[in-house]
Amino acid sequence: MVNSIRTPAPEVSPSSSVGTKAEALQQSGDAKADETAAAKSMFISAAKKPEQFRNYGQDTPRYETVRAFYEEQHTKQTYAFASAALKKYTSSSRCTMPVWDALMYLNGVVDDSDPDTDLDQLAHALQTAEAARKAHPGEEFDWLHVTGFIHDLGKIMAVEEKGFEGLPQWAVVGDNFPLGCAFDEGIVFHEYFAANPDTKDPRYNTKLGIYEEGCGLENVTFSWSHDEYLYRIAKEQSKLPKEALAVLRYHSFYALHHMGAYQFLLNDEDREMLPWIKRFQKFDLYSKSTEVPNLSEVMDYYKRKIQKYFPKPVNW
Questions:
Q1: Which of 54, 166, 253, 299 could form a disulfide with 160 if both were Cys (CB 3.0 to 4.6 A apart)?
Q2: More confident residue, 13 or 237
Q3: CA–CA separation, 163 vs 173, rounded Å?
Q4: What pTM, to 2 d.p., does this model score?
């Protein structure tokens, strides 16, 4: 599958400074973040009800793109692949760059796994962050606002810039799930796991697989994706609280927070974090619409808050 990577606007240079790049995005006709007023993005689109999100039916506009994505992801995401990717991406860095600079690359990424939007991921970051900020406006929740803005930043792995090789989307986006144990039927397009080698491996195809009941998700290997990548970076290089780290790692773990699967792997801390993950899921999912906050109106706030939690440039 070819990555859905949109070419950034010509005015935006990968080597631009934070301010220059953000300003160029605002001036570009392709920068959807500037098409509408911020206030219009802070609620679910009036034309779409909550139960209509995450509709994977054949009659949906993006069905074939999404279906093909999950067929490839479910076939190729194995315990061996994820373990190797985790080692590769945590043992060396591709570049050193401030989080704000990295966020600007998301304007060229469109998520093939998402049935609800074909907007770029910078637009989605703005929608999610502003939805969280509206629901929890207090300064004590600024970590949640930052988490909303950066939650999909790991998708920078799909970009061929700054030392990133442009990973295929099946290794970057989509729902994530545990590896090393049986694939739960609550995972979308579960039927495609039939072609995954782990399904036939007796080490990995039982309920517990290589794990013990109540071992805790921290001890579980997940499919390699933007969630795992950014979680590992934030855990080592940020001042974000544990609630934020849980959201970063598990916000795409729909089999758990939406379907209630894999409860046997949870420990007490996982159960403590689950309400925040479920709360964040509403901001992440239901803020998706064609209306996007204006980047220039919120940029100063988010730059300041990101600096608070990521005071140094990040080794990516």
A1: 166
A2: 237
A3: 19
A4: 0.85
CA 210 to CA 199: how far, in whole Å? Answer: 13
Tokens of 268: 């007490």
188-241 tens-digit pLDDT: 999 999 999 999 999 999 999 999 999 999 999 999 999 999 999 999 999 999
Q: How far apart are CA 199 and CA 264, in angstroms?
A: 19
Q: How many helices (H) and strands (E) does the chain have?
A: 11, 4
Tokens 């064609």 locate to 290
Token pair recorded at residue 191: 């039927």
pLDDT band at 4 (very low <50, low <70, confident <90, very high): very low
Query: Which tokens belong to 125?
Result: 């970051």
Burial class (CB in 10 A: 0-12, 13-18, 19+), 193: buried
Tens-digit pLDDT profile for residues 141-191: 999 999 999 999 999 999 999 999 999 999 999 999 999 999 999 999 999
Burial grade of 191 (CB within 10 A; 0-12, 13-18, 19 or more): exposed
Collapsed DSSP state (helix, strand, coil) of residue 109? strand
Residue in this structure with the two tokens 């039982």, named with its chain if needed: 206
Task: For residue 168, give the amino acid letter.
Answer: P
Residue 25: which pLDDT band, with cuts at 50, 70 and 90? Answer: very low
Q: What pLDDT is attached to residue 44?
A: 42
From residue 63, alpha-carbon distances to 60, 125, 188 in Å are 5, 23, 13
Question: Which residues does residue 221 pair with via DSSP β-bridges, in sequence order?
Answer: 179
Long-range Cβ contacts of 240-246 (<8 Å, 24+ apart): 240/143, 240/146, 240/147, 240/309, 241/143, 242/269, 242/273, 243/143, 243/144, 243/273, 243/276, 244/143, 244/144, 244/146, 244/147, 246/270, 246/273, 246/276, 246/277
The token pair at 16 is 């631009």
Structure tokens given for 40: 């219009």
